Amino acid sequence: MAFNLSELTDAAAAHGVVVRVLVLGVQGSAPRETGASMLVWDGGQTGTIGGGTLEWNAAKHALTLLAQVPWARDVQDIALGPELGQCCGGRVALLFERFTSKELAEIDQSKPGFSRPETSGARGEHSAVFEPFTATDMPVFIYGAGHVGREILRVLQGLPFAITWVDMAEARFPEAGFGESRLVFANPAAAVAQAPDNALHFVMTHAHSHDLEICHQVLSRPFGHLGLIGSTTKKARFLKRLAELGHAPATLGRLQCPIGDPTLGKTPAAIAIGVAYWLMRRKISEKENGEKGVL
Fold first, then answer.
1. Is the pLDDT assigned to residue 63 strictly greater than 90?
2. Angle 147-156/268-289 helices, nearest 10 degrees?
3. pTM of the full predicted structure?
């Protein structure tokens, strides 16, 4: 999660005054994790802190801040069971902050993030809040804008992944995007050089020759994961060719093929669901085990 200054600036420009509601902390069971947020303005909202009574009450309280003075802030510490009757049973601390274009223009973008105090008298251990401007979403590179690639992008929309979508022609992408970055190369394997060392690569172009070259380039440099669409027969053929290109058995052992969960089926939707589940498990694993995941 990060402080999305661009999103806030656009919302303030469109609606005048916006209140951002941030999940400041969580104890026990709660609908969303620390860092989740939503924006509320007169007549609408975007994002979610978990829905239900918690979100409804938070949106209602946010509206009361719209008319207050600049930099208005408030903190609520809520016991979900006793106070809201929710079955979660935990506690959630919410930070409410009112923004207009004026306040947003005063934020120092030369720093790595936005640091500010809480309101005085707030309960809990927090005395100041810092959020980085740059999201820490897991980098995912998807090669191929065909049926499976499009379905994976659709399923991953709104999940904590920074997606780069690669293909050989702009016309192969759908007109409407899913919040991803797009790269166009006549040889899609050229995009591998632009990936960070921890990127997770999923290869599904329209041509085996492109798939093989992408796999070769990924295996030739640091990477987080390499998944290849196809059958076990395709995997065997690729492993043989990649070994001939000089890749060691230990490196080749990191190639996942097929991707997703084959027991779900072979339709684009089934593959996409399997990939999304795998990615979320990977994300949880990295969170539980530190910087490097175990999957």
1. yes
2. 50
3. 0.65
